[in-house]
Amino acid sequence: MHTPILGAVIALVLWTFVMWFWLYATRLPAVIKGKIVYDPNRPPSEFMDRIPPSVRWKADNYNHLHEQPTIFYAVAITLALLAAGGGINATLAWIYVGLRVAHSLVQATVNKPMLRFAIFVAASIVLLILAVNAALILFSAPGA
Q1: Architecture of 5-140 per CATH?
Q2: More confident residue, 36 or 59
Q3: Which helix (H) or strand (E) segment is 14 a member of?
Q4: Which of 18, 41, 88, 104 is least surrounded, with the fewest CB atoms within 10 Å of its CB?
Q5: What's the average model confidence in pLDDT over 126-133?
Q6: What's the rounded Cα separation, in Å, for the pair 125 and 97?
Q7: Residue 107 pLDDT more than 80?
């Protein structure tokens, strides 16, 4: 089954890998330059504290891409299975992906918390609308 919403799903998955590459492209040189040795007997926070903040921001964002977006994946795939992955739902899905990319870029570069928060709230509202759309379709279906 191919529905337009699945394009947004794959785009966000691929974006997550962009952040993964960016994370290691900045972390490895920082570790080498700082002669930082990971000691498994010490808390991981001690390792992270030795990495410059601008480098940590990429790792923080990569982790964030494994949090709320998991709800997006579930909702988008549900909409696809309900044959409701086109039209407004596909548009909303792409808006969500765009907002998550914007969130990543802000966090990974300038890391302005209020701007990040505003983008996060906007993305959350879009995701909520998608989830409500899925619930309305699912629970209004015959036999629901």
Answers
A1: Up-down Bundle (1.20)
A2: 59
A3: helix 5-33
A4: 41
A5: 98
A6: 13
A7: yes
Q: pLDDT tens digits, residue range 86-105? A: 999 999 999 999 999 999 99
Pairs from 62-69 (Cβ < 8 Å, separation ≥ 24): 62/16, 62/19, 62/20, 62/23, 64/103, 64/104, 64/107, 65/12, 65/15, 65/16, 65/19, 65/100, 65/104, 66/16, 68/120, 68/123, 68/124, 68/127, 69/12, 69/16, 69/100
pLDDT digits (tens, 9 = 90+) for 62-87: 999 999 999 999 999 999 999 999 99
Residue among 67, 58, 73 at smallest CA distance from 104:
58
How far is CA 113 from its chain centroid?
16
Task: Write out the two tokens for 11.
Answer: 């785009």
Which two three-digit tokens encode residue 52? Answer: 């410059």
